[in-house]
Amino acid sequence: MLPEDVLMRISAVLGIYKALESYLPEQDRIDWLTSPHRGLDFDGLRPLRLMMSGEFEDLLMVRRYLDDRCAGFPPPGSDDYEPIAEGDIIWTR
User: Fold this and answer.
1) Mean pLDDT of the chain
2) For a 10 Å CB count at each end of the chain, is N or C smaller?
3) What is the pTM assigned to this prediction?
4) Residue ranges of the Antitoxin Xre/MbcA/ParS-like toxin-binding domain (predicted)?
5) Within its chain, how far is the Cα of 57 from the centroid?
6) Under the phi-then-psi rule, with left for phi > 0, alpha for psi from -120 to 50, and beta for the rest, what region is 24?
7) Residue 50 clears pLDDT 80, i.e. is over it
8) Distance of alpha carbon 50 from alpha carbon 42, whole angstroms
9) Domain locations along the chain
């Protein structure tokens, strides 16, 4: 049996993985993780660096950021952000 903190970290990493699959095309995921970000949440840091810091709160911050983007919420401090509208979605069978 794994300790609770280990299970929580695994859950956060799996949530980040799932959100990246939903939020970005495959070829952009590594760039997103390894590039510095200007947003308030990241303050110029790379998401991967935060994820590897060892701090659980850093993992959760990256997960929350991605979960919010997937849900259509704008990044903090962004005035010109336009969420995805239903007309932007292309349905295929």
Assistant:
1) 85
2) C
3) 0.76
4) 19-67
5) 13
6) beta
7) yes
8) 8
9) 4-72
